[in-house]
Task: inverse folding
């Protein structure tokens, strides 16, 4: 690293240090707020966003113009685009967060010990949470709202494609926080170069947790470079396994919904495994369904053959395709001789996100549930249900694919830590 | 790094990779065991240790001889020493673990969604857990026992001072696992050089969690070098704050017990803060108590002065001493004008482990509980109660001082992750 790069990184470190210290100071205030105060503030933030809708849409238009100039695909433009209706929906999400129970102060467990000490484990905010994300500017608002409700100060690092939108949103939120008599530094935006990310993920002792949310490259870079605790999110090579005892009508619905209902997200299915005993009956139908929806298919030889017989194009599949998260209308398809072979395949290619079995056989589903290692195991349901909103959490900050701290959809409780409180009358240890 | 070092590290990586793959395979088996099977195996392990007591004590004698030759202090020799009685006590710890409830399978929460999907979050083993520790060979047995009960395969890396003891213990445990018809690779010992540690903490995808347990240097090295998830443990700069509303008799007992009952451990107090209003009454007494117990005292000017008036030697304190975890008979002593000043001091010098307030004033204790950021906040009780055994967990794998996943004493539940199980009848997303 040359001297100029060093100097730039040092500048980022200083900026992040300052931001984190202001965040720490704000977090002390946030940790002590009552639910009523937090909910009232969320309402003020929501109103402020609606009122600033014009400025936010204008800032977003400038992001979109820059994106178009740089050749941003229409699908990405659509994810980035904010309209007055979308801003209103984003503001409503804050009101919904206000309606959720306060995670802070919840007593997780407790007891009175033999010596009379009363112990209880209570949820407390993490403190200062960093969030690094790409794409959609609504994540900025969701993160700020979930952070406020869980008593955390948030340091946000959005994608450069949404820089103007994020800047305007955070400006609006900070002004609203002050209006609510809360510290503006409860929400901060880092807008420097990549050095800011490096500085954020190595700010040990200043930042309590970093959550990366985005593509595989972003998440890998954060996980490998971080020295602060990280929650890994979102890579989903999701399988649907259709057992020999599946209700094949249910299976067709689930495969189609899992793959095509929203193919760009992490809980969409990428791979279909079919038990050999039902392959000849099931595959021609489901391949036809998928093909009709525009899904490009990659299959093992038997799948290619069954496709050809039914007049459906299936390319030969590679291991890379079995390992891929397509994020689009592509699907790998395999035939397995046994349930065990399906579990082995998932163990080899899965990413511990969501795995689905379709079966009416109780012992098969029990085995699948017990042996498949994933954040979410679904029986006879679409993989698309792995979602904080669908699980009833009211909102979602990401989907954890690691085993530490949080697994699956993360919302308010997952943004808290705990503290043990021990109360006595002078007990000492013998 | 030169080529020879590279080659050695690559060799370690290969060895750790092989060990982790064997551990993964064993962990699949462990994850499916019933409580009855695990408890029976723990009994067989305990019996095997008792039967091998002679060999274990002999191996330990060889560690001790090497230690004495290298000038190991008597206190460390005592921590390392195994006698037939100590081996019996270590074996009994396994029987106690067998008596604890099985954490695996516990339903943490669950509900039925509006669409009829039944969701439940269930505790599952982490999978493969690495543990890096120094000092006492009983940790080897505790880790193996807690790992087995929680369904995890353990890769252990003990300190070189206990190499022969650990090797004999693990040999005994592995033979007993086979006798119990379980995979021996549920417990493995890494006995290579420091490269093994580097390889273990960077074995992403192979190792689910690493827990370092030992001195500050070890823990820092692991936390900074790791790319696998880590739980930071055990650095404790523990404060006892004696409020102006303290029962001073209770306060003397708590200060003395917190500092001297076992000064070498992380939950021993290192620093005493006294409210100015009671300093003149309280300090001469407690400084006398501490001095009589052989505690070397470092104090702020008023403390030095009060000590001198009472004929007790108190050296002027430095910020380094206020920040230090002495692990021995030394204590820093400060006088604070207010409760807020005490909280600020703890915020500056504390390590988020255990903080104690002695007070009969309800608003003071409530404020201390709410505002002090620590794994454990004690009111009118000795800091020595921060301990898995004391909390009723039956055993302890370490004390987490981080906020992610686990905070405070860690036992069986903290060695588990969770899995969401979603059961439906063909539900798809609209």
Result:
């Amino acid at each position: 690293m040359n001297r100029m790069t060093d100097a730039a990184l040092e500048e980022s470190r200083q900026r992040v240090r300052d931001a984190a210290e202001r965040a720490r100071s704000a977090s002390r205030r946030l940790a002590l707020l009552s639910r009523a105060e937090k909910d009232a503030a969320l309402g003020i933030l929501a109103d402020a966003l609606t009122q600033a809708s014009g400025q936010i849409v204008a800032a977003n238009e400038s992001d979109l113009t820059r994106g178009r100039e740089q050749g941003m695909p229409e699908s990405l433009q659509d994810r980035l685009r904010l309209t007055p209706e979308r801003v209103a929906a984003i503001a409503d999400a804050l009101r919904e967060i206000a309606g959720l129970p306060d995670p802070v102060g919840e007593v997780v467990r407790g007891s009175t010990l033999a010596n009379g000490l009363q112990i209880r484990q209570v949820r407390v905010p993490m403190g200062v949470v960093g969030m690094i994300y790409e794409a959609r500017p609504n994540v900025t608002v969701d993160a700020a709202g979930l952070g406020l409700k869980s008593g955390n100060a948030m340091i946000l690092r959005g994608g450069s494609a949404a820089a103007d939108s994020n800047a305007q949103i955070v400006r609006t939120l900070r002004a609203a926080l002050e209006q609510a008599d809360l510290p503006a530094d409860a929400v901060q935006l880092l807008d420097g170069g990549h050095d800011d990310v490096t500085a954020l993920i190595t700010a040990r002792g200043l930042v309590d947790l970093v959550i990366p949310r985005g593509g595989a490259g972003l998440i890998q870079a954060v996980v490998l470079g971080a020295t602060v605790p990280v929650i890994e999110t979102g890579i989903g090579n999701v399988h649907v396994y259709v057992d020999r005892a599946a209700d094949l009508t249910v299976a067709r619905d689930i495969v189609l919904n899992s793959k095509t209902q929203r193919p760009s997200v992490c809980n969409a299915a990428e791979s279909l495994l079919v038990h050999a005993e039902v392959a000849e009956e099931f595959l021609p139908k489901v391949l036809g369904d998928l093909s009709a929806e525009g899904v490009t298919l990659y299959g093992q030889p038997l799948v290619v053959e069954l496709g050809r017989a039914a007049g459906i194009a299936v390319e030969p599949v590679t291991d890379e395709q079995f390992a891929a998260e397509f994020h689009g209308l592509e699907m790998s398809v395999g035939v397995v001789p046994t349930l065990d072979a399906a579990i082995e395949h998932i163990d080899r290619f899965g990413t511990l996100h969501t795995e689905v079995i379709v079966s009416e056989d109780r012992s098969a589903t029990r085995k699948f549930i017990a042996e498949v290692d994933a954040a979410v195991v679904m029986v006879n349901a679409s993989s698309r249900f792995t979602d904080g909103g669908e699980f009833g959490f009211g909102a979602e900050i990401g989907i954890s694919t690691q085993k530490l701290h949080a697994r699956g959809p993360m919302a308010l409780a997952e943004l808290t830590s705990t503290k043990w409180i021990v109360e006595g009358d002078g007990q000492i240890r013998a």
